[in-house]
Amino acid sequence: MHELSLCQSIYGITDRAREGRPVVTVRLRVGALRQVVPETLTYCWGVVTDTTPLAGSMLDIEPVAAELSCRSCGATTVLADRFLIACGTCDGADVEVVHGEELVVASLDLAEPASAVRS
Ligand SMILES: [Zn+2]
User: Fold this and answer.
1) Residue 30 in contact with residue 63, Cβ under 8 Å?
2) Looking at CB atoms within 10 Å, which of 18, 84, 100, 101 has the fewest?
3) E strands, 19-94, where?
4) Which stretch of 31-35, 46-50, 67-71 has the lowest confidence by average pLDDT?
């Protein structure tokens, strides 16, 4: 279950970025080629954060479609099937993955610090 180790690295990134502030939502961009199951990722996030200051925070997972750039004809192909990595225009296999392998913490939604809440 590689989602667990992913969550551990997401935790490390988030914990550094939050600078001690409480986090409500962690927004992720996850490429289609990462083969991440969102439900499993969410479950693992709960496990990893359970006894930490990030307990109760949510993951917001934005999928990123896989996209190829062909070195032969220059065409760009958006992959519908991640198991068929070939150019959609010339069928060539000399392709470069331009999107789909990312797994990034895009942003954090922080809770208002208690001292800043106005009544
Ligand atoms: Zn091509």
Assistant:
1) yes
2) 84
3) 23-31, 58-64, 67-70, 76-78
4) 31-35
Contact present, 48 and 85 (Cβ < 8 Å): no
Please give the distance, rounded to the nearest whole angstrom, from the Cα atom of residue 79 to the centre of ligand 1.
Answer: 13
How much is the pTM? 0.82
End-to-end CA distance of the chain: 46
- d(CA 97, ligand 1 centre) in Å: 13
Q: Minimal CA–CA distance to 87: which of 76, 98, 100, 102? A: 76
Q: Is the per-residue pLDDT at 55 higher than 90?
A: yes
Among candidate residues 90, 79, 73, 6, the one with its CA nearest the CA of residue 45 = 6
Q: What structural domains does the chain harbor?
A: 2-111 (3.30.2320.80)
How many whole angstroms separate alpha carbon 115 and alpha carbon 43? 32
